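[job 4471] stage=fold_predict status=RUNNING
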Amino acid sequence: MDGDKQRLTLKREVGLIGAVSFIAGTMIGSGIFVSPQYVLSTIGSPGASLIIWACCGVVAMLGGLCYAELGTVIPESGAEYIYMLRTAGKVVAFMFVFSFVLVMRPASATGIALGFAEYVVAPFYNDCTPPPLVVKCVAAAGTLVLAIVNCLSVRLATSIQVVTMVIKVLALVVIILGGVVMLFQGNTENFENSFEGTNVGVSSIGVAFYQGLWSYDGWNTLNYLTEELKHPEVNLPRAVVIAISLVTGLYLLVNVSYLTVMTPKELMSSSAVAVTWGNKVLGRWGWIMSVAAALSAFGSLNGTFFSGGRVCFVAAREGHMPDILAMAHVHRLTPSPALIFTTVVSLVVLIPGDFQSIVNFFSFTAWFFYAITLSGLLYLKIKKPKLPRPYRVPIILPILVLIAAIFLVLAPIIDNPQIEYLYVTLFIFSGVIIYIPFIHYKLCPGLLTKLTLFLQLFLEVAPAEKNL
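[job 4471] inference complete, writing structure tokens
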């Protein structure tokens, strides 16, 4: 392949509808069907929980707009990784990709897969909690199916994203309409004294934001696949505004509907909120909500795989991961080695997986790196103002999101320190120990070269160029 002058590139196949579907479709996953009870139980009151959901939407929108500028200034796939590489340097970028590949993306995929599995098995365990082993087996099966789809075709993965996006929006609209009907029938008692019992501690607010922002995770999806987006300078900011506005509105109305139909106590004790809502409002048709929620999580998991595989791919292309992960299938033009690697790590994380702890530690790590990325945007605005910027945001926006990111990193530690956050921090910085010998000094055994050649032939892949 070294002598072949016609190098591979990933095609620009994602238009505006696909772009909106990738953002909104990744955001609307298992979170809105699972997280509401965690937000409510952490913050303590219905009124405060609605404020948390609205604020999470604002943070996601501001973050998305800041990332839209980064995506047009640095028009490469890879999101945080490539932005840190161009602003903070190689060591920080490697720390991110090390944490992303081994913690953040597998944790995100595992959390969504567990949510998907909960809804798939819920109708079969009406009167009891489903066995954890059954849930994890279903989650593993869903993960493998989507890994195969993403390895086979970009177009097929995009089609799944669009179809599941339509289904999940329809499901949320059904929940909203059901809530509106109940409100008109006078079911407003859950909104009386709606701020009573609010937990105003810094830790409670921080953890409630973690749980809420988990449902908004995916606002930066397009930045992972900028090189596959048609006209990114136009479609990137446009898709961000459309998708995040749509999702925020839907989330707020869905939470109002949940609180109209269920008491706060019922909502907090439910393991599958949408199913409980469906059983109370739709009666014997309640199973429809279980199917819709499962398909919603399936679409979100698909978007997570699509974007996550691209980070491995870009990092390998920059020399921060094994060369095999920077290759694409010679016929299908998908980064299949990176997708396979991401799948294997996700399945390993699934074994001890627990939804709530996964969300907390994923969110802590993610917002740590979002803060560094936004600092990079401020650096580019101040130090390199003459860089071509097809899209720009006022400097106050990255400052506001950076403050929010710092709060989200520090809040759970200040009020309620847990040793686990120290372990996560040490893990993030342990990337430096890996970087120095294996990346900087290239202490790489010849065995890796032989393995790369074998896998290249076995998987029918070849090095892929940047698509700028």
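[job 4471] summary: DSSP finds 19 helices and two strands in the chain.
[job 4471] exit 0
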